[in-house]
Amino acid sequence: MEKEYKSEEEFLKHYDSSRFEKLSATTDIAIFSVSSSKQENYRKLNNKHFSVLLVKRNRYPFKDMWCLPGGFIGVDETSEDAAKRILARETNLKNIYLEQLYTFDALDRDPRMRIISISYVALVDKNRLDDTLYENASWFNMQVEENEKEIKVNLDNGEENFDIVVKKTLKELTTDRYKYTVKKNDHLAFDHPLTIVSGISRIKNKLEYTDIAFNLMPEYFTLGELQQVYEVILGKKLLDPAFRRIIANKVEKTDKVRVDGGHRPSKLFKYRSDKK
Amino acid sequence: MEKEYKSEEEFLKHYDSSRFEKLSATTDIAIFSVSSSKQENYRKLNNKHFSVLLVKRNRYPFKDMWCLPGGFIGVDETSEDAAKRILARETNLKNIYLEQLYTFDALDRDPRMRIISISYVALVDKNRLDDTLYENASWFNMQVEENEKEIKVNLDNGEENFDIVVKKTLKELTTDRYKYTVKKNDHLAFDHPLTIVSGISRIKNKLEYTDIAFNLMPEYFTLGELQQVYEVILGKKLLDPAFRRIIANKVEKTDKVRVDGGHRPSKLFKYRSDKK
DNA sequence: TGAATAGTGTCTGTGAGACAATATTAT
DNA sequence: ATAATATTGTCTCACAGACACTATTCA
Known about the structure:
2 copies of one chain form a homodimer. Chain A is α+β, with helices and mostly antiparallel strands. Helices cover 20% and strands 34% of the residues of chain A. At the A-B interface, helix 1 and strand 5 of A face helix 1 and strand 5 of B. The first copy, chain A, binds a DNA duplex through residues 41-45, 222-224, 239-242, 244-246, 259-267.
């Protein structure tokens, strides 16, 4: 039974904040970007890959495994502030695209104790990044294969290469569209395969009805480059005329030109937010 | 500096779970439904309203204000389990549609202390509900008006009627599509206006590309009723032929018929999950 | 000159929006 | 008969998919 209080102030004065059990909370961020790798053929464009930043853990639990950048949320900071703090530690950039993704809270997701993870997705333009990475961080190119039953992501940082497989359970009604469960994972700590797959799925969806792609682009870019970014994230080739129609009112042609190979030079465009 | 451990087991044995500050977590659920109200005209169909279940608080903080059903998350239950526990308390139904919405964690969202809220959205078919409601619960019909700058929701349970207004800030790139902030609210506790508005927005979006609407429907329904549900949630009239085209492969015609007024009877349909 | 990308024109089929027309019921 | 909903037909316009064609560069 609760005592009677005359006012909210009086109630708060007597409130015992230890009445309910508390738990720990962390933030984990799926920082995505698009990497380029040179082609041998001087005529061809750079190869692009959708990529994610992982950190090698140097302490228990999951020592020596890879994980998403993250950390504990202080009692005096919001999860978003914590995410920004971690982003600032991992990159040299301000004003990074940051969006809350999902709160993972399975009871056994951390062997230490009950720790929930309020996860975020961030998008960065790799061109603006320093090459120097914090601690044991490394960019992994992702190759995503998805069918009705599962999603396989191949992760490759040039030295290490491994797959994670996440099973999709379609629950029809009575729950969200899909429920993900880890099916194969030997290299990632915690439930981070779920975070990565959820993040990819979120970005893929939003790519089609928002302008988030431009967070992955430098100020000036060619339409070919922009199309490549869409293609590596969506995981399929797009037809040039259709693509140009779709993004026509999101970009603005500049008088700059890029000459970069044995082929016709391309005009440089920039993002136009005042689109109709 | 961290001590050296020989194995993860050894590390876990010595782990001090009080090393990091902890915080409290609650679950709040926006339980949505569609209410019907009889029309005076015998020919006309029932009027439908998109509605949300609110509870009048009988204790501090925010005593005597309305809030979403919710409660603290135990250390040994997931937020989803907590949400199901609360749903079971408020309704008599099993297998309710339940989806994680967002984690709200502004530092000042609760005057007692730092409490984050992992919020959920639930959809129920009011026809299957008992009329008896738990404690001080009450269904409020919602009238939503949205423009570029803000979202106004009028809440009405037959006895009380009030507005909440939430401001939309468009952050273009560098963050999610919109950021919501409470602009006017005299009747709802905590940051629940944000939860309600976020929930409405989520359901509105998913209505178009998923089958969630059928969670709001009884087993057998007419296409007119189904269309009404879409219309009250989307907040606009739809054209009959277009609507029927869209949902054609999601429903299955039965040989049942509903005769209910001074107009042509309608065939009853049911949900068909094996759609192409 | 050839291989590659850049950029545009155009045809066609699909599908949404709009409107019209017919069917059926209780009062 | 009338007012309401139920149901279907069809026209048009916009647009995505598909393909073809031209432009331009460097080795």
